[in-house]
Design a protein that fits this description.
alpha/beta; D-Maltodextrin-Binding Protein, domain 2; 2 domains; six-stranded mixed β-sheet; five-stranded mixed β-sheet; globular
């Protein structure tokens, strides 16, 4: 299993793509499907992964339990590796008494399908990014706050999202109210970025930019607030639309941009860092509460260890994919903190913050206070 995970991680980092530029991936929220091969991949183990934790109790005295977990990410993407590592550690910690039958890459459906299946307890665990779950848990729109994380490092963000504080307490309660139990968030200060066919060096350069976005009202309101013209478009149509110059730009994480071969049809990669690239993992509330406390502790431990294991990899994956885009001919544009301050000072962006704060029962304010 560890060798398999190492192969997946190598694929995510190397991203040696065999797909044609016009073909699009089924899962926009993660990396597009790759065919990277690593004949000899040394296990990329962290100390936490190498040192098996001491058992917290006598699991052999408990009835064996199998949970079903799933994601709809692209093959080799961070979400898949994260979910499968949780499954591996649960098995190891409990000596095979608690197991997760894990189905990656949309085997059991897309994000919306998986979320519904978890809510009805047909499956128990889902790994997905934050956007797909907003329609079920409206408070998750707090992650739509533009650039709220842009000036913080991964450690500080991890403390805010996984620590014991007012934000995690309130968000956890929102999950519980909808029949879920929040297990944790995986991130390391990597973000959705903007690819474009013109240089976006200043705020003025965004005026009139026809940018493809997801059909998310908060995302669209942000782009409108900075003068761009957001255009919702099906993911399958994005590459051709960029190629034919029907749109000027799109926004996604670096690995998704590589998976879709956007370096073939875009000249610039602007590190706008407007939305955190983050995976959440949750379990059906009744399923979690039905577990023996020892199993609950084992699952919590496995998630914590998986986050610790994966976080160092995320920054490297992001760096490697930015390099692939740059080597493919894209110019990378970085911004000083003053750029983010200028954007956040706009009246229109402040209005977006107010609207999202209202949608999330004040969670926007809570998050901002916890981060600072």
């Amino acid at each position: 299993m560890k060798k398999f995970l190492a192969l997946l991680l190598a694929a995510a980092m190397v991203m040696s793509l065999a797909a044609c530029g016009g073909s699009s991936a089924p899962a926009e929220t993660e990396a597009a499907e790759t065919e990277a091969a690593a004949e000899e991949a040394a296990p990329a183990e962290t100390e936490a992964a190498e040192e098996a934790a001491e058992p917290a109790g006598d699991y052999s005295a408990l009835e064996p339990v199998e949970l079903i977990g799933a994601d709809s990410t692209g093959k080799g993407a961070a979400g898949q590796i994260f979910g499968e590592y949780v499954a591996q550690r649960v098995d190891e910690i409990t000596g095979g008494q608690l197991t997760i039958d894990y189905h990656p890459n949309g085997d059991l459906g897309g994000d919306a399908d998986l979320i519904r299946q978890v809510q009805s307890n047909d499956i128990q665990i889902v790994v997905c990014q934050t956007a797909p779950i907003v329609s079920t848990i409206p408070e998750m729109a707090v992650f739509d706050l533009p650039m709220v994380f842009s000036k913080f490092d991964g450690d500080k963000i991890n403390e805010a999202l996984n620590g014991e504080n007012a934000f995690t307490e309130a968000l956890g309660a929102a999950y519980e109210a909808k029949g879920f139990h929040l297990l944790g968030f995986l991130q390391n200060a990597t973000y959705r970025l903007t690819t474009s066919n013109k240089a976006l060096n200043t705020l003025e350069d965004f005026k009139g930019l026809q940018i493809r976005t997801m059909e998310n009202a908060n995302h669209m309101a942000f782009w409108q607030a900075i003068g761009a013209e957001p255009t919702p478009l099906a993911w399958a149509e994005v590459y051709v639309s960029l190629q034919n110059k029907m749109i000027d730009a799109q926004e996604n994480a670096a690995d998704t941009c590589v998976g879709a071969n956007f370096q073939e049809v875009q000249k610039y990669l602007a590190c706008t860092n407007h939305i955190l690239y983050c995976n959440q993992i949750c379990i059906n509330k009744d399923a979690y509460e039905g577990l023996d406390p020892l199993y609950q502790a084992a699952l919590d431990q496995a998630v914590t260890e998986a986050i610790d294991y994966m976080r160092p990899q995320l920054e490297q994956i992001d760096t490697d994919n930015k390099k692939i885009l740059a080597d493919g001919g894209m110019e990378i544009i970085e911004y000083e903190d003053s750029f983010f301050d200028e954007v956040l000072a706009l009246d229109g962006v402040k209005k977006v913050y107010e609207d999202i704060d209202s949608q999330t029962s004040g969670l926007g304010t809570t998050l901002t206070e916890v981060l600072q």
